[in-house]
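Slide 14.
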Amino acid sequence: MNRFKTLMALILLSVLMAGIFTSCATRNARKFYPSASVPEIDKTRATKILTAFFGLDNGLTFRARAIYRKAQGKDGMPLVFSHELAPNTIDGADFAVTTKNGTVHIIEAASLLPANEEFEFRTVLLIGEYGNHPDNPPVSVEVVGDLMARTGQNFKGQRVEVIPLEDGPVLSYAEYFTMDKDYPYIEKGRGCDCPKEATKWWSK
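Slide 15: predicted structure.
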């Protein structure tokens, strides 16, 4: 009887650990480092997906298992958003990818990593299987769940065409800022800024 109880306890523990591990990978339950505030302009401008790029076709490596335990050999698609996202609202089920032949794929996992530091949170990596290059590549991605910006706006319903694999990535978001006395400069360590003495600044 004791052996039976021990076996059942081990099975239950295995199930619980698998569930926790999957949840962490899907929702990306890691520590994040949000900035103390968000730009005022983010509170009024429209939310949208800026770009989606079919970055890897069955090409995620073993190291990607640090983000999602089943990532190796899967597709990878980075999405760039107009606003910083609320990390606890990100889930693979928030996204639907449509391929050339009309098939709709729900994403296995979505992650902010490695962009989990101050003034980031705008790039999400989608991991899963959503078509193959060149016969049936992904052509569009839509937010089908409640994906929230840090300002409270909802991205649900936003849709964008996918940049094909052969076209390569593009620069889709950039900000201009100056390291004045009000800038929260981080000299070293996690999320540190460019060295002040070695950084050149210019403007139009």
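Speaker note: Helices lie at 2-27.
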